[in-house]
């Protein structure tokens, strides 16, 4: 038992190292990085190659020694499906272990005005199409990015005000579609999925990640690890109060940060539709043609929420993402001024305010990446399962 | 090298287990708890007994087997000194490894109106007296509990508004007293020291700890571990903003929780002196003789800061300490109402609001306990040092 455990742990360590490495690793580099012995690494790598989870690239000769064989995550051997449910569209992405896109489809649908059943049928349809497009590849898992609070079981959406969802048994409803009955599906908060790519780029760092989207959410990262919290809801900066008794938020509460700076609230204020760019939205809100006032309101509210979070967490770095990324430079002076005025961390030196180098669709990419987890965390079990289904076939 | 490391680690694991156990452990129980083999435990326990860090209690016979020999932390073999600097007094406590009080002395002095040098001379005098009273015992360390932000080096107090201190080189100033030149002294935040006893009582739990004292501070505990933050300042709830642009805080900022509910601010509002009890203070503030209004103000401000912290951390338990403990029951309904209105965690079920079972002087006790750390974390080094000084003697 102990040794099965250890083997699984070591297989996982090696597979994760290969998948997350920015450049291909040799067996020797893997041994160094994972602190496993070279013979152990060689044995486990052979096993992962045999199971089509790792592949060898062409040997590279440098100097007089033996050529180095670069190891890569296997391409086109399995699929993981991410799906993102937003207020005005649903998008589905299938990737392989190397993160390459195998399939991607979007349906534009007003989730807020559709029935829950119709919205979930749309998800099911897209997932079914994705599955058709990846052909015979085994599916590692499916993760849905939802802008709301998810029950710790990953099945129920407790509340997603920006979708108009309240207590929706998301996974059960999906399972009612016969074609999907055999898939393992989990729902996760969209912002917590968005931060996953940021984690790769900032190994070991501590930072607050705030993402402006239809709503405002985020994540707390401490020493490179995502803070989960008791229910998996840590980092809900959007519902910290920046004005007691203030404006009504879509969530029903008063004075939330989200009520002042979310895309939804800015659009409502401007009386504009869904598809306006943040830049045009700010121009539309600037009555006298002066953007500074609008930027000031956004920056001060955001700065206050950031300062409060900093005083609780003692973190000095903030990463702005989503619609906040393109205006990060413009709002930074106001945010910084407010943070300096209230955050104790500013006594120790300047805080760092950065914009996320968001890939397109970080929540969707994060969902697909999270859907790979069953393979990454337990490759041994995945290999056994694959062997069994091969025998069945 | 590796084996010295491992030996130190194992010695520390055993010593910590003996010191923190609520009831005496046998060697067999220690082996089970630490997952070390019985022979390893026996060998290390002998070493710790030989070094006067552990002592055996009288054997206990139960049933037919061999009698069980209970192990206890050694008494009267070394001393650790904690000192607490408050606005109106300085108090010094020496304990042994078993946590028993060896010496305790208080000087009433208005630290806020004294010069920094005089206040620190008072600290030096008390430490010197404590050292005299513990006689020949070696001193493990000295930790000073300061109500303020301490630089990460543990030497400088960056700001302690409630003492009127700003950038005070606390440890250097202490070292100028020749009698103390050989002692290892560190300054730590008083609230973070206060929470240490709470940690023992809530192993593995996640909670927010808020302590009302001259100011308002606290700590964040996640899965039984104290969150440090980048500078060791996590948990500064007292300076999160509950009223933007609101009352001026003693720290110079505006709208801090501390400006509304600290002992200092309540006393200022009532125009009362230093030594008023919280109960009398609230009565004095209740103009029409109705405490509800005063309790309401405290509860709503506190509730807002708690709700904001909960949304960032996703923690459902709050422990109230200091002057907030005796009024915890009275303020709970208002705090809970405000938290329920703003904290997402309330969607998942009722939050837990508890009062700390504070020992008398939790910050002082915590400081003495923290002063034992050099022995607890590196018993091997301590043993070597003791052997060397024995040879020198």
State the fourth-level CATH superfamily of the largest domain in chain A: ATPase, nucleotide binding domain
Count of separate structural domains of chain A: 3
The CATH topology of the largest domain in chain A, please? Nucleotidyltransferase, domain 5
Can you write the helix and strand succession of chain A as a string?
HHHEEEEEHEEEEHEHEEEHHHHEHEHHH
Structural class of chain A: alpha/beta
The order of strands across the largest sheet of chain A is 5-4-3-6-10
Mean pLDDT of chain A: 91
CATH architecture heading of the largest domain in chain A = 2-Layer Sandwich
Q: Which two chains form the greatest contact, residue counts included? A: A-B, 44 and 43 residues
β-strand number of chain A: 15
State the CATH class of the largest domain in chain A: Alpha Beta
* Fraction of residues in helix of chain A: 40-55%
Kindly, what is the distance between the CA atoms of the first and last residues of chain A, rounded to a whole number of angstroms?
Answer: 29 Å
The protein's oligomeric status is: homodimer
What Rg of chain A do the Cα atoms give?
23 Å
Count of DSSP H/I helices of chain A:
14
Organism (chains A, B): Helcobacillus massiliensis
Family (chains A, B): Belongs to the ROK (NagC/XylR) family.
GO molecular function, one term (chains A, B): kinase activity
Protein name (chains A, B): Putative NBD/HSP70 family sugar kinase
Give a short overview.
Two copies of one chain form a homodimer. The first copy, chain A, is an alpha/beta fold.
Describe this structure in words.
Chains A, B: Keywords: Kinase, Transferase. Chains A, B: This is Putative NBD/HSP70 family sugar kinase. Chains A, B: Belongs to the ROK (NagC/XylR) family. The structure is a homodimer of 393-residue chains. Chain A has helices spanning 2-20, 27-34, 38-50, 116-133, 170-175, 190-201, 257-261, 263-270, 278-285, 291-313, 328-342, 362-371, 373-377, 379-392; strands at residues 54-56, 71-73, 79-85, 89-95, 101-108, 139-146, 149-150, 157-160, 165-168, 185-189, 207-212, 216-222, 225-226, 317-322, 352-355. Chain A is of the alpha/beta class. Chain A has three domains: 2-73, Arc Repressor Mutant, subunit A (Orthogonal Bundle), CATH 1.10.10; 79-192 and 362-377, ATPase, nucleotide binding domain (Nucleotidyltransferase, domain 5), CATH 3.30.420.40; 202-355, ATPase, nucleotide binding domain (Nucleotidyltransferase, domain 5, 2-Layer Sandwich). Chain A has a five-stranded mixed β-sheet with strand order 5-4-3-6-10. In chain A, a hairpin with a 2-residue loop joins strand 12 and strand 13 (225-226). In chain A, helix 6 (190-201) crosses helix 12 (362-371), helix 8 (263-270) packs across helix 9 and helix 10 packs across helix 11. Chain A starts with a helix and ends with a helix. The mean pLDDT of chain A is 91. Chains A and B meet through helix 10 of A and helix 10 of B.
């Amino acid at each position: 038992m102990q040794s099965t455990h250890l083997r699984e742990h070591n297989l996982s360590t090696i597979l994760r190292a290969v998948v997350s490495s920015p450049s291909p690793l040799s067996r020797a580099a893997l041994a160094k990085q994972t602190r496993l012995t070279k013979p152990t690494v060689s044995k486990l790598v052979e096993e992962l190659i045999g199971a089509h989870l790792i592949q060898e690239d062409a040997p590279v000769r440098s100097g007089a020694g033996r050529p180095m064989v670069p190891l890569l995550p296997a391409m086109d051997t399995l699929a993981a499906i991410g799906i993102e449910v937003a207020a005005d569209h649903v998008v589905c992405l299938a990737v392989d272990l190397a993160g390459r896109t195998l399939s991607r489809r979007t349906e534009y649908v007003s989730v807020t005005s559709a029935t829950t059943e119709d919205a979930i049928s749309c998800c099911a349809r897209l997932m079914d199409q994705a599955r058709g497009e990846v052909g015979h590849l085994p599916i590692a898992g499916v993760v849905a990015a939802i802008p709301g609070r998810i029950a710790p079981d990953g099945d129920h959406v407790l509340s997603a005000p920006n979708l108009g969802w309240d207590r929706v048994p998301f996974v059960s409803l999906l399972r009612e579609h016969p074609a999907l009955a055999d898939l393992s599906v989990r729902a996760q908060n969209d912002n917590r999925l968005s931060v996953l790519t940021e984690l790769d780029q900032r190994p070991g760092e501590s930072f607050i990640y705030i993402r402006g989207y239809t709503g405002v959410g985020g994540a707390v990262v401490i020493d490179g690890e995502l803070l989960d919290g008791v229910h998996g809801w840590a980092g809900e900066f959007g519902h910290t109060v920046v004005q007691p008794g203030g404006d009504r938020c879509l969530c029903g509460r008063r004075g939330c940060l989200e009520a002042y700076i979310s895309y939804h609230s800015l659009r409502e204020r401007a009386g504009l539709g869904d598809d306006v760019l943040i830049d045009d939205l700010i121009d539309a809100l600037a009555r006298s043609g002066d953007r500074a006032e609008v930027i000031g309101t956004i920056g001060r509210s955001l700065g206050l929420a950031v300062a409060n979070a900093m005083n609780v967490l003692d973190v000095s770095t903030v990463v702005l993402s989503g619609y906040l990324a393109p205006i990060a430079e413009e709002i930074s002076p106001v945010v910084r001024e407010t943070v300096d005025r209230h955050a104790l961390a500013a006594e120790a030196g300047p805080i760092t305010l950065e914009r996320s180098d968001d890939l397109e669709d970080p929540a969707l990419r994060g969902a697909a990446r999270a859907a790979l987890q069953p393979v990454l965390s337990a490759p041994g079990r995945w290999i056994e399962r694959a062997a069994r289904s091969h025998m069945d076939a």
